[in-house]
Amino acid sequence: MEEKIEIKGKTKREVNMELLRIVGMLMVITLHCLGNGLLLGNSSINVYNTVLIRFLDFFSLTANAIFLIISGYYSINKKFNLKKVLNLWGKTIFYSILIYLICRVLNLNMQIIDNASFVSFFPVISGEYWFINAYIVLYFLEPILNIMLNKLSQKQFKYLLITAIVMLGIVKIILNPGGVLAGTMLPVILVYMIGAYIRKYVTIKPVKYCFVKYILLTAIATLLYIILSVIVKQIDNNTIYSLIKKLIGEFREYSNILIIAMTVLIFIKFKTMTIKSNFIEKIITFISPSVFSIYLIHQSINIRDTMWLKMGIMDYANSWLMIPYILLMIITVFIVCLFIDLIMRGLYCGIKKIPIVNKIIKKSNDKLDKINLRLNNYITD
Could you tell me if residue 3 is inside a domain? Predict the structure, then answer.
């Protein structure tokens, strides 16, 4: 998720991809708002708002895939970078512990779970952030994945990709089988491979009505989901009921072929976008480094459930103001988390200027560079 695109001295299109990461994080917050705010599947909400919630949900389901397709696109030709993994891991631990301690010290009425100490101090090992765990595993797999993918011919790569999309995006979604198609990492690798294939073999050109097509696919996915939800309530046969119920659950997975198509569309839209304003560029590049931290802060186990409930969204559940209020809360959470990370970024920059700290950081980086070089030589030999 923290895959960074170097911007200085390069094209505006890469700034566009930083903007896509920001949009992706807003989508992530949206999903957490709807899920942790108990808005999804809530029978107390009227039909009109229920449909709007489902539409907003499917509109945002490309969130995780956005970060993965960007990683595949920009990492396929890169070597393993140990510092990225450690930075990801370290920042996860830092914010997990920080938020836990703040909740304890201030005695905030948040969700302090029984094993919060262990979970907060060991967020990666305990699986507090499932997507971070998946991303770390992907980082360690990337060197071998890249070697394999780069050795394939275009036909072989295309065959692999089509097979994976059919198996994970259609067969798994419809029949939801376990076994070799189960697990978190296969969809992660699939979307990574899509990004890699685009980088290697696709000349990206503007697509007409790209956003309109995205909205249309969102509407189709929403409609299918609602139809299935209505059908399942009319079924008496336990076996058929169970199958359709599982299908409804799998339908929201980002390996769903509709979501994959939406991911590719939004990727192309932003990749071909032209940003002419230098002021907007500066805003994007200022916000972008905080995207990963925004995820860590708002999704902390200690606050993520209670936080959304305390915002009073349910007070507008049956009002025409519900969607505007949800969007307002999403933007508020984004800005507050951004502000917190800007403070941390400022403190870090200040601490780095202390001579002894700067010396320690420099020595650590030098050692990590040597270890990283050995690892890459070992992998490529």
Answer: no
How far apart, in whole angstroms, are the C-alpha atoms of residue 153 and residue 159? Answer: 10
Q: Mean pLDDT, to the nearest integer, of 234-249?
A: 81
| CA dist., res. 29 & res. 25, Å (int) | 6
Torsion angle of alpha carbons 87, 89, 91, 96, nearest 10°?
180
Q: Which two tokens stand for residue 282?
A: 């500066």
7 falls within a domain: no
Q: What is the pLDDT of residues 243-264, one digit of tens each?
A: 888 888 888 888 899 999 999 9
Question: If you average pLDDT over every residue of the chain, what do you get?
Answer: 87
Model pTM score:
0.90
Query: Given the structure tokens 């509109």, which residue do they identify?
Result: 59
At 111, list the tokens.
Answer: 């969700």
Q: DSSP class of residue 78? A: P
- CA 294 vs CA 26, 46, 157, 276: distances in Å: 10, 32, 35, 27
Alpha helices in the chain (DSSP H): 12-36, 47-60, 63-75, 82-105, 116-121, 130-151, 154-166, 172-175, 185-201, 210-232, 238-250, 257-271, 278-287, 291-298, 304-309, 322-352, 355-380
- Structural domain boundaries, residue 75: 12-380
CA distance 28 to 135: 15
Residues in the chain: 381
Residue 71 and residue 68: Cα distance in Å, rounded? Answer: 5
How many Cα atoms are found within 13 Å in the side-chain-facing hemisphere of 13? Answer: 11
Contact 23/34 with Cβ under 8 angstroms? no
Q: Do residues 36 and 304 lie in contact, with contact meaning Cβ atoms separated by under 8 Å? A: yes
Number of domains in the chain: 1
